[in-house]
Write a structure and sequence with these properties.
258 residues, eight-stranded mixed β-sheet, 9 helices, 8 strands, 38% helix
């Protein structure tokens, strides 16, 4: 299903439905299409917002996790979203973590899936080779448990990106920034209810990363999805949506009276 991409000032985003904001942040090689399963499922109960992160549009000095967090902050301020249920995948999770730590007053809950911030393999220590389509295809397949999820359209899009030199440099800058910006014990300051959803077959942020987040974030719960890689919301959307829906519904239940 195609959704209207709105524009306000420099920000491009999808906004569907009414209610509490459910704001979704995609990863380094992500796009709005990563969340089509969540938009269609949750837009009847929430205002589902997916900003198109300017991964390749910031100047090189601000092409960092911190630069993206500042961009998200400006977007949220402009739209004046409050009581936000914030969700991030991969690098988007890392940006979400930084945002919650800096602006907790606007966040009701946090959901991380395959998030960087503690550890990630990412692109590995190799340069994304220009002109090597097979290399790019294999790297894309690593994202998923089922390599068939790495469609030709997805691989073509990534291949086109890394063959533009400045774009390739920015991707590497973001990947290195994510590795350098290890949040470690800092995440234990997060007070919001936090949902962690991890693929049991994630090669980029392996299952132990989800367990470590669970150990560090006080008010968190951890769920694993079998036969699933680094992007559960794409690879297992029905299971992912069920876990997220139950978590969000629980937040709105009145506390049990002792």
């Amino acid at each position: 299903m195609e959704y209207e991409i709105k524009q306000e000032e420099k920000f491009r985003f999808i906004e569907e439905g009414e209610g509490e904001p459910l704001l979704l942040l995609h990863g380094l090689f992500g796009a709005l299409s990563n969340f089509t399963g969540q938009i269609s499922y949750f837009r009847t109960q929430y205002k589902v917002v997916v900003p198109l992160l300017p991964l390749l549009d910031l100047d090189i000095l601000h092409t960092t996790v911190g630069g993206l967090e500042k961009w998200v902050h400006k977007f949220i301020e402009l739209r004046d979203y409050k009581n936000i249920n914030l969700l991030g995948n991969s690098l988007g999770g890392h940006v979400a973590l930084m945002y919650v730590l800096r602006h907790p007053e606007r966040i009701k809950s946090l959901t991380l899936t395959g998030s960087s911030g503690l550890f990630e393999n990412g692109m590995g220590d190799t340069y994304p080779k220009r002109g090597d389509y097979e290399y790019i295809r294999k790297k894309t397949e690593l994202t998923f448990y089922d390599p068939k999820m790495a469609s030709k359209e997805l691989v073509d899009e990534l291949y086109e990106t890394v063959n533009v030199r400045l774009k390739a440099i920015k991707i590497i800058a973001l990947a290195k920034s994510a590795i350098r910006n290890n949040l470690g014990e800092e995440v234990s300051q997060i007070k919001q209810p936090t949902l962690l959803v991890w693929g049991n077959n994630d090669n980029i942020t392996p299952p132990f990363v989800g367990k470590e987040f669970h150990k560090l974030i006080p008010n968190s719960e951890l769920h694993f999805i079998d036969l699933c890689g680094h992007a559960p919301m794409m690879e297992r959307p029905e299971e992912f949506n069920g876990i997220l829906h139950k978590f969000l519904r629980k937040l709105n239940e009145p506390a049990a009276v002792a």
